[in-house]
Specification:
- The chain is mainly α.
- It is built from 4 helices and no strands.
- It has helices at about 1-25, 30-40, 45-65, 75-84.
Length: about 80
């Protein structure tokens, strides 16, 4: 059972990181690219930055699910900016 949970966690992490990479490539929200540049310019490695940003995305997705409201891209963008 523990292996299944780890596989699910790994899959979710990979999906979140892919979403962040797509946001950076597409420029939406623009804060994704700005925060990536800020974090890496401060010496954070690219993968660490992606993980930190994915954590922010995950928390905003969870909040949206818990409250039953739509995803608040502005709150998410503010959360990303708080990383830098």
């Amino acid at each position: 059972m523990k292996e299944l949970e780890q596989a699910e966690d790994d899959f979710a992490h990979k999906a979140l990181v892919e979403a962040i990479e797509n946001q950076i490539a597409e420029g939406h929200p623009r804060e994704a690219g700005l925060v990536m540049m800020a974090l890496t310019s401060k010496g954070m490695d690219h993968e660490e930055a992606l993980t930190a940003m994915a954590d922010v995305l995950a928390s905003h997705i969870a909040r949206s699910d818990e409250t039953g409201t739509g995803f608040d891209v502005n709150a998410y963008a503010a959360g990303l900016l708080a990383l830098s």
